[in-house]
Design brief:
Mean pLDDT: 86
Order of helices and strands: HHHHHH
Oligomer: single chain
Number of strands: 0
Number of helices: 6
Low-confidence stretches: 1-5
Distance between the termini: 24 Å
């Protein structure tokens, strides 16, 4: 049952926000290709188009009451895949170290395991913590800023320190939020056993 003031969530598949999310997902391989082939300006254009569609799908979903269960899965999945593509592409080109890639991917694997554990106790996905959103936002800023320096080497002296500040802070917050999710999972398992 929805609380007063909370939006209704439907099971519809073909809504405008969901179509925009499908388009974002379809752009991920193109984005990765552009990064791997050092076409950073084109990769940034794809990322801008994706970000605009992400913003639009959220506005449309709320404004026209088109929030769906599928959309609640597709939207964060697209965000994660763009981050993953940027990480793997930049690490393959030695723009970022592989340890940063593995640190972020390991945390996401941990969340998948926690989700499976929660599902085994009959609970749905863990609620998104605001710290996790901040961490994702920091990484969303970091990777394009680092790519900007690759696309335009004359400004790399500015973009690198800013991009790395966001990247390191984002990775730290990513894991901090991960430990909060671990604590939530432990509470869920205790309640289920209780």
């Amino acid at each position: 049952m929805a609380f007063s003031g909370s939006p209704d969530v439907s099971n519809r598949v073909w809504t405008v926000p969901n179509v925009l999310s499908f388009i974002r997902l379809a752009l991920v391989p193109l984005f990765l290709y552009f990064i791997l082939t050092a076409q950073d300006a084109l990769a940034l254009i794809v990322l801008v188009v994706s970000s605009l569609s992400d913003f639009l799908d959220g506005v449309i979903a709320r404004r026209f009451n088109q929030i769906t269960r599928l959309g609640q899965l597709l939207d964060p999945a697209a965000d994660r895949l763009f981050i993953f593509a940027a990480l793997i592409g930049l690490a393959a080109r030695d723009v970022i170290p592989w340890w940063l890639f593995f640190a972020i991917v390991a945390r996401d694997i941990m969340l998948v395991v926690l989700g499976i554990i929660s599902a085994n106790y009959g609970f749905g996905p863990l609620p998104v913590h605001h710290l996790g959103k901040v961490a994702t936002a920091a990484l969303f800023y970091a990777l394009p800023i680092l790519m900007l320096g690759q696309a335009f080497p004359d400004i790399e002296w500015v973009t690198d320190p800013i991009g790395w500040a966001f990247a390191l802070w984002g990775a730290f917050l990513y894991w901090w939020a991960g430990f909060i999710y671990v604590a939530q999972s432990v509470r869920i398992s205790r309640i289920a056993r209780g």
